[in-house]
Specification:
Layout: H1 4-18, H2 21-38, H3 48-71, H4 75-89, H5 98-112, H6 120-131, H7 137-151
Helix pairs in contact: 1-2, 2-3, 2-4, 3-4, 5-6, 5-7, 6-7
Length: 153
């Protein structure tokens, strides 16, 4: 199977051929962000995991922008950002469902032996590497908080 970078290049060419402006602009922005990350001092060519980290960061930026646009009364710009997120998510592994995420969180809590909300750091440290790219950090954090709140007396 082709690497993520090769897949992005092929999809970029397809978007150019089909004149799909949204996909074209998102993929150009993604390639630029990847290239920027690769030319940072001490950095080397990114593998698939590195590119997924860049994509996750771009999605987080889009979500922040959506909140800003909605609070600023610009729903048309928020919709554009949501469409960009949809394009970017095509390059991430399938996201975990809420039930799957809860199961992973409960397993990590048991593994760490967490007793309440004060153990959140240890649970997150355990979960983040396992769920990299499969769930957003905010969703993981909220799920951990909810499960740990159930444990506290």
């Amino acid at each position: 199977m082709a690497t993520l970078k090769e897949r992005i290049d092929a999809d970029l060419k397809d978007a150019m051929r089909s004149k799909n402006e949204l996909t074209l602009s998102v993929l150009r922005m993604l390639k630029s962000a990847v290239k920027y990350k690769e030319v940072e001092p001490g950095a080397s060519a990114l593998d698939d995991a590195g590119i997924q980290t860049v994509i996750t960061g771009l999605i987080k930026q889009r979500r922040d922008s959506i909140d800003q646009f909605k609070s600023g009364g610009r729903p048309e710009l928020a919709e554009k950002e949501e469409a960009e997120i949809t394009v970017l998510q095509n390059y991430l592994p399938k996201q975990l469902s809420a039930d799957e995420l809860t199961a992973e969180v409960q397993a990590a809590i048991a593994e760490v032996g967490a007793k309440g909300p004060k153990d959140m750091g240890a649970v997150m440290k355990n979960l983040n590497p396992k769920l990299q790219g499969k769930a957003e950090g905010r969703a993981i954090s909220e799920a951990v908080k909810a499960q740990l709140a159930k444990l506290s007396p």
